[in-house]
Amino acid sequence: QSNFERIDIAPDIFDEAPPLDFLHDKWFINLSDIDIPLEVRYLLQLGEKFGLPINKYNKDSTLIEFIKHIENNITGRPNNIINFVRNNSFPILNRFHNNFPSLTSIDKLILEWLRTTKSFINNHPNILITNVDNVTVALDAYVSKMEEILSDTNTYVFVNKDPSKKLTRDLRTFLVRWKRDQFIDELTYCRLLTSDGVILRAYGLTKILGHLKNYRKMADDRLDIVIFGATGYTGKYVVKNASQMCKDRKMKFGIAGRRKEALDAVVKKFALDIEDVPIILADIKDEESLKKMTERAKILINCCGPYRFYGEPVIKTCIATRTHYVDVTGEEQFMIEMQLKYNEAAKEAGVYIVNACGLDCIPSDLGVIFTQQKFEGEMNAIEIYMSVWLSTDKKGPLINYATWESTIDSLAHVKEVQALRTKLYPIKLPEFTPKLKSRSVLHRSDVSEGWSIPFPSADRSVALRTQRFLYDNYKERPAQVKVYITWKSFFEFLIVAIAGMFLLVLSRTACGRNLLLKYPALFSYGLISHEEPNPEMHKSVHFSLTFKASGWTEKLSEPTDEHTDPPNKKVITRVSGDSPYEMTSIIAILSATTIFNETDKIPGNGGVFTPGAAFGKTSLIEQLIKHNIKFEVISSTKK
């Protein structure tokens, strides 16, 4: 039996009850196979907001519910509001308890319907009743239908433990952040914190379907990670390492690029043991294809450079589709420009955009964070000495051509960077003393072997932006930073100096840049060519960054407070590893998985970040150590 009928609920009874006029425009749809008694339909159509008559059997329980509701809504509010609500509500509740009106004939009739309805529902547990506006619907076979739906593995997947506690904890974390960031005021925070919550409908709860035993949640058709630019030199390394690292973490990844044949070849060579690696076709010049790609990803690893030319459309699309983003850029201008343009949009979308998640610039940026954590006092300044060396006599290109392109383009637009910095930080930091002075162009250091010169990479810029973030958001004293690169022999330094002069001079003109791009091997002494570097050569490449920090044993209460004594403490730390491209790919993957697993430890609810700002309070350093990138304290001395 299935019927759709308009019913006046006992018109003869309620004609003289004006508050119940709405009962004359009710509709009932019976989609079950059970004949539902008229009295049951009458009561069900009253709806969930209808207040049932109170009698001696339910008076006390009703009163307790009133009190619970009042207390829940005033919890956490200021004491004056709590006292005001209690003082005004409790006398009313007391009068209700001692002098509530006697039952009318209509009240008695409704209670009789209630008893009949309870008996009917108990005898027909498969019937589900729902109300929508002035329509009441009865459905049967609810449990069996729900079981059928939840058993569809294409839609639902098993959850091993009760998700409700984590969901509640995560929701409360969001509320704390919103209040801290002044998105909501104190009263709104208290109201939301104490309001009734409903577990997301994506979960089929065992509370409803006890015999199913397991929780289920809706299967997400988004891949955990998508690697864009997977056919490039760095992208191939990322695919190779993602195959094992994602497998270990039970994460699903896909790859994206322009040509399917090339993507197929990458899968066959670097991910053959993975059962299914989805391939997504995406072209940087096709906005719709980028949208389709980012819609498939929870986190995107962008390996498609130079980023000045190809990075912005990807970031813009990630924000539009609410996809987290990491890349391996070392282009200072690109990074600052992206923060200027997209920081607010990323915050609004709840998306984390983290640049420089490769050898540029995580070892240096997190190395500074690591040194600050180990300093046990207040750090004033830090000098970073980088060193790269080979443990083989073999010759051949070591650096990918795309890196050469990015370097030339960055040098060509170096004058634009200062204007961008000023725009990003219109208010300068206070002066901190003693000021860290630059060392001479060529010098020797007591923490590195060889000849050192200032290194004009993005590492210093990124580290300073992280320090500015810590000052602005956590009121921590920002460290002054200088970066140098060390060559073990004077002859090596001489070769690099000559190559550097050619780069600086020729990159200023279009003609010079064309020469540099056309003959990379000539101007780099064979370190760079149009051919891909030999992976075997990279196994013999080693790098280290030594951090020389100075400061005080005592930390003052405010970051701008000045110490009266000169610095009395020094700490030396080191970050080191092998095979730069291998390490870059591992760092990028770990950065992505950290966003995936530790969003509660990343500041805010989205935005454009440096690695140190994003990951300084996460476990990323510990994960890097497990993957053979060493972070170690060399010495700590006090005067």
TrEMBL record:
Native source species: Acromyrmex insinuator
Lineage of the species this protein comes from: Eukaryota, Metazoa, Ecdysozoa, Arthropoda, Hexapoda
Chain ranges passing through the membrane: 485-506
Domain of life: Eukaryota
Protein name: SCPDL oxidoreductase
Pfam families: Sacchrp_dh_NADP
Keywords: Membrane, Transmembrane, Transmembrane helix
SUPFAM superfamilies listed in its UniProt record: NAD(P)-binding Rossmann-fold domains
Any one Gene Ontology cellular component term annotated for this protein: mitochondrion
One BP annotation, GO: glycolipid biosynthetic process
Residue ranges of domain Saccharopine dehydrogenase NADP binding in the record: 225-354
S-adenosyl-L-methionine listed as a keyword: no
Keyword Membrane: yes
Membership in a protein family: Belongs to the saccharopine dehydrogenase family.
